[in-house]
Amino acid sequence: MSEQVTLHVSSNVLQHYSQIAANTRQSLETVLTNLLEASMAEKPVEWLSDEEVLALSEMQMAAEQDEELSDLLARQRESELDENGRHRLSELMRVYEQGLLRKSQALRVAVERGLREPLQF
Predict the structure, then answer these.
(1) According to the CATH classification, is domain 1-41 in 2.60.40?
(2) Are 62 and 70 in contact, with CB atoms under 8 Å apart?
(3) pLDDT value at position 98?
(4) CA 59, CA 46: separation in Å to the nearest integer?
């Protein structure tokens, strides 16, 4: 089920997403709908509940992924990675970096909300 919504956006936003629509040969409505649906998968950290923010601030990479990443990095240092290994390493590095970014955002929000003390160095 879908509903129609009218939005007022800046000319910069309209121009940006109109260009994407033209480049991908999709309608502007399709591009914006896809963008909104994709944003549901990963809400901004500021929108999360206190419990979700705290959980995210303590997040760790899954043990299996961490072990695989360590193995791939070691094989890369030894120049033993084939094309598939390099591709997988790239994927895991992206997952790691995205997780680290989300975790740092959650730490900032947790401190702002008074849920955690600021980190001391």
Answers:
(1) no
(2) no
(3) 92
(4) 16
43-52 burial, b at 16+ Cβ within 10 Å, e below that, comes to: eebeebeeee
For 81, the token pair is 């990675």
Instruction: Give alpha helix (H) positions in 1-47.
Output: 11-24, 28-41
- The widest CA-to-CA distance across the chain, in whole angstroms, is 56
The per-residue pLDDT of the chain, averaged, comes to 93
29-53 per-position pLDDT tens digit = 999 999 988 888 788 999 999 999 9
Integer Cα distance of 90 and 105 in angstroms:
22
State how far the Cα of 35 lies from the Cα of 105, in Å rounded to an integer. Answer: 21
Residues 6+ apart with CB under 8 A from 58: 103
In this prediction, residue 109 carries a pLDDT of 97
Residues of the chain with pLDDT under 50: none
- Closest alpha carbon to 59 in 121, 115, 101: 101
